[in-house]
Design brief:
By secondary structure, this protein is an alpha/beta fold. The chain has a domain of 135 residues: 2-Layer Sandwich (Nucleotidyltransferase, domain 5). The chain has a five-stranded mixed sheet, with helices on both faces. Helix 1 crosses helix 4 and helix 2 packs across helix 3. The longest helix is centred in the C-terminal third of the chain and has 24 residues. The protein is globular, with a radius of gyration of 17 Å. The chain starts with 11 loop residues before the first strand and ends in a 21-residue tail after the last helix. Endonuclease that specifically degrades the RNA of RNA-DNA hybrids.
Length: 199
């Protein structure tokens, strides 16, 4: 069973991101404040759920949440500020959208930067421990998948519909064959044999 709360604040939000390890597309974050009586036996860390279950959970979370926010940070910004900063920025942008604003923030992982003056706690594997972080992980993943399916239409040869921009063998083969697109993260090692020159 996932835990409902970390703090004793009524308005506690969980936040998580998706797409950090991808070679293309945005990093997407979500923040969710759940009501104290929220229960869902299926909800878990999005990585442990099938796509079908995530798609079923998305509207349930959106309807039942007291508030939720989702934000993308795109590849141009990832290349400028690096993926860790982009992930935290996406989380901040998703929290900004919450009405009411949270009194406490729980974050999946071990890295975060203060948001306004709201207290926070980072929790390793938080998406498999707390309902609100699990809910945020599902929204971040489903919203990012919708975006990747959309840009797949523009560049079907990379099969983003299937790999969502992750570094699969097929995705890397397509980069070798067709080069990169405007959606690729140029600061990432897109191919294993890519050489980084310190000039």
């Amino acid at each position: 069973m996932l835990l409902k709360k970390f703090s004793n604040h009524l308005l506690e939000c969980g936040t998580d991101e998706a797409g950090r390890g991808c070679l293309a597309g945005p990093v997407t974050a979500a923040a969710v404040i759940l009501p104290k009586d929220f229960n869902n036996a299926v909800l878990n860390d999005s990585k442990q759920l099938s796509e079908k279950k995530r798609d079923l959970l998305k509207p349930i979370i959106e309807i039942d949440a007291l508030s939720y926010g989702v934000a993308h940070v795109f590849q141009e910004d990832i290349d400028k500020i690096n993926i860790l900063n982009a992930s935290i920025l996406a989380m901040h942008k998703s929290i900004i959208k919450l009405k009411p604003q949270p009194e406490f923030i729980i974050v999946d992982g071990n890295k975060f930067k203060p948001y306004k003056d709201i207290k926070f706690e980072t929790i390793i594997k938080g998406d498999s421990k707390y309902l609100s972080i699990a809910a945020a992980s599902v929204l971040a993943k489903t919203y990012r998948d919708i975006y990747m399916n959309k840009i797949h239409e523009e560049f079907p040869m990379y099969n983003w519909k299937q790999n969502k921009g992750y570094p699969t063998k097929e995705h890397r083969e397509a980069i070798k064959k067709y080069g990169i697109t405007k959606y690729h993260r140029k600061s990432f090692r897109l191919l294993p044999e890519q050489l980084i020159l310190d000039l």
